[in-house]
Design a protein that fits this description.
heterotrimer; A alpha/beta (648); B alpha+beta (273); C mainly alpha (232); A: 648 residues; alpha/beta; Flavocytochrome C3, Chain A, domain 1; 2 domains; five-stranded mixed β-sheet; five-stranded parallel β-sheet; globular; B: 273 residues; alpha+beta; Ubiquitin-like (UB roll); Fumarate Reductase Iron-sulfur Protein, Chain B, domain 2; binds flavin-adenine dinucleotide; binds protoporphyrin IX containing FE; binds iron/sulfur cluster; binds FE3-S4 cluster; SQR/QFR_C/D (chain C)
Chain lengths: 648, 273, 232
């Protein structure tokens, strides 16, 4: 390992989970041991929540209900637009309504195994426990989950599980869950317990005497940059998949909030763990700005195939069965088309690398519903997937009822994020991180329908309980904008913004974003190699240099300036990209979404190295030119035994 | 771009294949610096647009060129670019979200022909003040939700999910209404600039479910009062809204709102001031 | 904070709930429709000759006598109608103004997608109908603007008016506008009163068209019969 790329620091450990009791009792025990804040005192405590997705929205609403003063920030015009709104497939819960053998323990087990043994058992078990309360809460809020004729909730099986535990609202589950949280949040805004800051972007964290005490934010409409203070800061800013430029994330999804907190001392865990979703609409041209996911549920009835022969460019309907390779069914007879995402994605890449891909540039595989339409009839297929088929037709201009869809993997979710302990507190006291922005729960690979579960678990149930232990020490000494730490943070942000505007070079922020994204996709995407990652790191450093000397941003910062917003985000993506590559380079094993070509079984499956890598890599930022410091959190498996994943 | 700027456009000269494929378009776009400044339509020419581009990708291309010329790019709202967040939305040739019943981000350039002139304007309504160019402030919708578009159920107080079965038909109809993405096209298209379809969608969603019953009367009375207060127009059943709604929210929801409102007024419900 | 600004912005508050105004319109509209049904039947008595027509006019003035003094019934009808027209007019104007305030600056380009011709002409059509009603009362009830003057019989006034083709054409235009007003208005009223739904929509629309057509034809019959000397 090249020492110049990083150094190794002290190990790190979670100290909050009460490991002296059995795993099933730890969460209640933690709540019991935690300290409480008396309702009369809550009014005196202020909490900043950045983000209004499932995690941030539910947290802000719940904290507001509890009586804290909440300040809520988001960059879109309305909280209802957080990218959670785009989640299609569903949300898991261990309700066992289907009587098919599901249980909290099974959900826990599946999630630890699905995460390829790189997540923390305690957190995952709590997630499984809380999952059942989430469904109750959402139903009471009026979330219109799919129901059976008897009036009870329907479930489906989703993404690599053998029980039906996924609750869904057609193909718009995220939207409906988010609206539930959003409405709860608006209710609190009306009740004045939550103060709203729409179209306001967090640009720095204010740390006073080692505690997170506020943020610096820019009002995107007026351009005003100002400081906001609180007794605790909660970050729920979502995932950073947009580091790849093309992803299924919203255009505004960014790493800025967590990256700048990282630069203030919060460790960044497992940055290289990225989930590449197998069923997206393939790229069309270089103008493409965004990739669209087709729900994974399509794999329940669609069959994935490519021609057996490379270069077979016949109309798919003219290719006889004998000339088709249903490669997932061939390679994984027991899971077939339902293998987990990382496997489905990598196999799609493999067949395309073999030259058997279909569509423009050979980057696509067929997802064929001909058999399902024959078996179920077109109306049934329409009822199940109609909106997805319409979306596909709208985007591609092709009719998926007649011709097989073409799909290709795309960046979808980031398992990495800021390191948090069992209380969801980062390495900066007083700063909590929830939802996709933290690293917890999913290990090296996230199972379908479990991000929504985690976001809501964190926001509705976990954070509101654990944060009180911290706040019980408050209210902390008053800080205002004259505090040196606040002044320093504020001027730092102002200077950066000024700098972005003054370079006046020859390239737009989008062109840098596209370049770094393509590089990441090629060298830190579905398959990573030592050589490729080193090349990427070198190149990223060059891009960074060029960015700061050749960027062009028009306008000023005292007004609505979307180019400036983008420039700031790209600056952070470039820095993050480098850390992702360093993380990927140092992890010389394959696990979950991280496939290192050097570490595979003879059959080409991912080969984990538990001996050397059964740990969380938590990275510490070091200023100017210093290599980042690696802190390892060793992972122990008491309840689920380490085993090689197999979906054969 | 004015004629003098055309030379700087990404040109397809020397690339006959692209020239054959790409479209040349004239865009007339509403440019307005800020909420209080005067705006006007400005004409730009753009070349070599692929029919597979989305409408917003076409605007991206224009903006990249404007930035490189040192001009101010056109501000427009967008986020998910997959038709679900409701952030995008402009008037295209006089129709909200353009010629198809979809969101602006899901509109593709194949809906236009080579040589077309396309007029692009922001949503126009007093309740949606213009922020800049094509971006407007739709927070008024949130305040309508604040007035009652929720079910009051503090976290942790919910009964077991199966305690209350909901007939599938009601649940499905509630879902149809709940798919409203809050884009504002209904307001933009309505000759009265009325937010009725948006409000009705939420009233219908919650009013159809057993969980929504306790607050049903207060909800409708307060939400309607709020939309009047925000400065939206009243609904006179014209139907442009539903025809422009990317989620196809039906006029039936408005009838349901009216029904609930008159019932609530008869039952003595009055808006909170 | 801009957010706060936005929230504190105080647009001119519509004093009365917009849906309530619409309900006022629907109910007053329905009252007027009921009157028009009776009115068109009354008009058709012109075909039975002057006698029948005038006696109908007399009957309406004396019905209920002697239990009710003088022209009670007529005045009750008149007052109810007046209130209905005024309320209808007030609600229409108030919603119209609210709409104007809601979008002071229009679009450079605007295309209608769903609006029918009938729904688009509700406002100006309504105003013309209003003007017509005033003229019509001055013409046939008071005789103020009638060639026969006010001490003639209703039948004389009727014949005198419609022998003038310009008057007949003005009536015809107004009545056709009224038909369109009702074609949209009837559907609209069911919607306003919360009685329409997807199942009923077709039926209501069909009924509205049929009703508006029959009423319009019924009203047109008398003037044109006079013009073409079928009635004289
Ligand atoms: C297309 C798609 C489909 C998916 N489908 C599923 C599914 O079926 N099941 C499932 O379980 N998971 C799914 N996921 C994953 C899941 O949706 C996300 O992981 C989850 O919703 C993230 O929620 P969040 O609250 O953490 O963040 P988000 O919902 O992304 O919210 C982020 C919030 O932070 C705010 N924000 C961000 N940066 C800043 C800043 N700098 N300053 C201020 N505010 C900021 C934003 O305004 C926003 O409010 C899907 C994801 C995608 C992209
Ligand atoms: C005084 C002149 C009149 C004016 C200015 C007027 C105006 C209007 C307007 C603006 C509407 C609402 C348009 C809409 O719903 O789309 C309307 C509705 C209606 N009008 Fe009139 N109108 C007038 C006279 C009449 C008359 C004489 C009748 C009946 C005979 C009538 C019956 C109706 C009905 C039934 C409605 C539907 C109510 C509703 O939408 O809920 N109107 N009118
Ligand atoms: C075109 C055919 C019509 C004819 C031939 C006609 C005929 C008459 C006559 C003869 C009278 C006077 C009756 C009397 O004084 O006893 C009258 C009154 C009246 N008509 Fe008509 N009318 C027609 C259409 C309409 C229409 C379309 C309207 C309404 C929109 C209308 C509204 C009235 C009203 C309000 C009165 C006054 C009733 C009163 O207060 O006495 N009429 N009409
Ligand atoms: S009702 Fe339709 S048009 Fe109106 S905001 Fe909702 S989705 Fe948009
Ligand atoms: S177009 Fe406008 S008038 Fe009503 S029916 Fe729709 S809100
Ligand atoms: S950008 Fe989200 S709906 Fe268009």
């Amino acid at each position: 390992m090249p020492l110049e790329l990083f150094t190794v620091g002290e190990p790190i450990a979670d100290t909050k989970a009460p490991t002296d009791v059995p795993i099933g009792e730890r969460w209640s025990e933690r709540k019991f041991r935690g300290r409480l804040v008396n309702p009369a005192n809550r009014r005196k405590l202020t909490v900043i929540v950045v983000g209004t997705g499932l995690a941030g929205g539910s947290a802000a609403a719940t904290l507001g209900e509890a009586g804290y003063n909440v300040k809520s920030f988001w960059y879109q015009d309305s909280p209802r637009r957080a990218h959670s709104v785009a989640a299609q497939g569903g949300i898991n819960a261990a309700k066992n309504y289907r009587n098919d053998g599901d249980s909290v323990h099974r959900l826990f087990y599946d999630t630890v195994k699905g995460g390829d043994f790189r997540s923390r058992e305690n957190n995952v078990h709590r997630l499984a426990e809380v999952s059942v309360n989430i469904i109750d809460q959402c139903v009471a809020q009026g979330v219109p989950f799919a129901r059976e004729y008897g009036g009870l909730l329907d479930n489906r099986s989703f993404g690599g599980t053998q029980v039906s535990r996924t609750f869904y609202a057609r193909g718009q589950t995220g939207q409906q869950l988010l609206y539930g949280a959003y409405q709860a949040l608006e209710r609190q805004i009306a009740a004045s317990s939550v103060e709203q800051h729409a179209r306001t972007e967090m640009l720095d964290l204010i740390v006073v005497d080692g505690r997170a005490r506020g943020i610096v934010a820019r009002d995107l409409v007026s351009g005003e940059i100002s400081t906001h203070f609180a007794d605790a800061v909660v970050i729920a800013s979502g995932g950073y998949g947009n580091v790849f430029y093309l992803s299924t994330n919203a255009k505004g999804s960014n790493t800025t909030a967590i990256w700048r907190a990282h630069k203030r001392g919060a460790y960044f865990a497992n940055p290289c763990y990225t989930q590449i979703h197998p069923t997206c609409i393939p790229v069309k041209g270089d103008y493409q700005s965004k990739l669209t996911l087709m729900s994974e549920s399509l794999r329940n009835d669609g069959r994935v195939w490519v021609p057996k022969e490379r270069g077979d460019d016949r109309d798919p309907r003219d290719i006889p069965e004998s000339d088709r390779d249903y490669y997932l069914e061939r390679l994984y007879p027991s899971f077939g088309n339902l293998v987990p995402r990382d496997i489905a994605s990598r196999q799609a890449k493999n067949v395309c690398d073999e030259g058997r891909g279909v569509g423009p540039g050979g980057l696509g595989v067929y997802l064929d519903f001909a058999e399902a339409i024959e078996r179920l009839g077109r109306p049934a297929v329409e009822a199940k997937y109609g909106n997805l088929f319409d979306m596909y037709a709208q985007i591609t201009g092709e009719d998926p009822y007649a011709v097989p869809m073409r799909i290709y993997p795309a960046v979808h979710y980031t398992m990495g994020g800021l390191w948090v302990d069992y209380d969801l507190q980062s390495t900066i006291p007083g700063m909590f991180v929830i939802g996709e922005a933290n690293f917890s729960d999913h290990g090296a690979n996230r199972l379908g329908a479990s991000a929504l579960m985690q976001g809501l678990a964190d926001g509705y149930f976990v954070l509101p309980s654990t944060i009180s232990s911290y706040l019980a020490d408050g209210p902390f000494e008053k800080v205002d904008e004259s505090h040196p730490a606040a002044v320093e943070a504020l001027t730092g942000v102002q200077e950066q913004v000024q700098k972005l505007l003054s370079i006046n070079g020859n390239r737009t922020p989008a062109s840098f974003h596209r370049e770094v994204g393509q590089l990441m996709w090629d060298l830190c995407g579905m398959e990573r190699t030592d050589e490729g990652l080193r090349k990427a790191i070198d190149r990223i450093q060059e891009i960074r240099q060029e960015f700061w000397s050749n960027l062009k941003v028009t306008g000023d910062w005292h007004s609505f300036n979307q180019t400036l917003e983008h420039a700031g985000r790209v600056a952070d993506f470039i820095e993050l990209a480098e850390l992702m590559c360093i993380d990927a380079l140092h992890r010389r094993e394959s696990c979950g979404g991280h496939f290192r070509a050097e570490s595979q079984t003879p059959e080409g499956e991912a080969l984990r190295d538990d001996e050397n890598f059964a740990y969380v890599a938590a990275w510490e930022w070091t200023p100017a030119g210093q290599p980042p410091v690696l802190h390892r959190e060793d992972l122990e498996y008491e309840y689920v035994h380490l085993a090689q994943r197999s979906y054969k | 771009m004015t004629a003098t700027h055309e030379g700087a456009m990404r040109s397809s000269v020397g690339n006959p294949a692209a020239e054959k494929r790409g479209m040349n378009l004239t865009l007339r776009i509403w440019r307005q610096q800020g909420p209080t400044t005067k705006g006007k339509m400005v004409t730009y020419k753009i070349t070599d647009i692929s029919p597979d581009m989305s409408f917003l990708e076409m605007l991206d291309v224009l903006n990249e060129q404007l930035i490189m010329q040192g001009d101010d790019p056109v501000a427009f709202d967008h986020d998910c670019r997959e038709g679900i967040c409701g952030m995008c939305g402009v008037m295209i040739n006089g129709q909200a979200h353009g010629p198809q019943q979809t969101t602006t981000c899901q509109l593709h350039m194949r809906s236009f022909a080579d040589g077309d002139t396309i007029d692009i304007e922001p949503w126009r309504a007093t309740a949606f003040p213009i922020i800049k160019d094509l971006a407007v402030d739709r927070r008024a919708f949130d305040r309508i939700i604040q007035a009652g578009g929720y079910i009051s159920v503090p976290t942790g107080t919910a009964p077991e999910a199966h305690a209350t079965p909901v007939p599938k038909a009601d649940s499905d109809a509630a879902f149809d209404a709940a798919t409203c993405i809050g884009c504002g096209a209904c307001v933009a298209a309505c000759p009265n600039a009325s937010s009725m379809l948006f409000t009705a969608a939420k009233v219908t969603h919650l009013g159809l479910l057993p969980q929504g019953q306790p607050e049903r009367n207060d909800r409708v009375v307060n939400m309607v009062a709020q939309q009047d207060r925000e400065g939206f127009g009243g609904c006179t059943n014209i139907g442009e809204c539903s025809a422009s709604c990317p989620k196809g929210i039906s006029m039936e929801t408005i009838s349901r709102l009216n029904h609930d409102l008159l019932g609530a007024l008869r039952a003595g419900a009055r808006p909170k001031s | 904070m801009t957010v706060e600004h936005a929230q504190r912005r105080t647009p001119k508050v519509a004093k009365t709930n917009s849906v309530f105004k619409k309900a006022v319109m629907a109910i007053s509209g329905i009252i007027m429709v009921l009157y028009l049904i009776a009115h068109v039947i009354g008009n058709l008595k012109a075909f039975s000759g002057a006698e029948a027509f005038n006696s109908y006019s007399g009957w309406i003035r004396t019905v209920g006598n002697p239990a009710l003094p003088g022209q009670t019934t007529l005045w009750v009808i008149r007052i109810v109608l007046l209130v209905a027209v005024v309320a209808h007019f007030w609600a229409a104007v108030s919603l119209w103004r609210q709409a104007k305030r809601a979008r002071p600056q229009g679009y450079v380009t605007k295309k209608a997608t769903a609006q029918s011709y009938a729904s688009r002409t509700m406002r100006w059509g309504g105003v013309i109908i209003g003007a017509f009603i005033i003229y019509h009362i001055l013409d046939l009830t008071t005789g103020t603007v009638n060639a026969e003057g006010f001490d003639s019989t209703p039948y004389e006034r009727l014949v005198a008016s419609f022998q003038n083709p310009f008057v007949t054409i003005f009536y015809a235009i107004s009545v056709i506008l009224l038909g369109m007003h009702l074609r949209h208005g009837i559907w609209s009223a069911t919607q306003t009163l919360g009685q329409s739904n997807r199942r009923r929509e077709k039926t209501v629309s069909l009924f509205a068209v049929a009703f508006a057509t029959v009423l319009t034809l019924g009203f047109l019959l008398v003037p044109f019969s006079v013009l073409f000397n079928i009635i004289d």
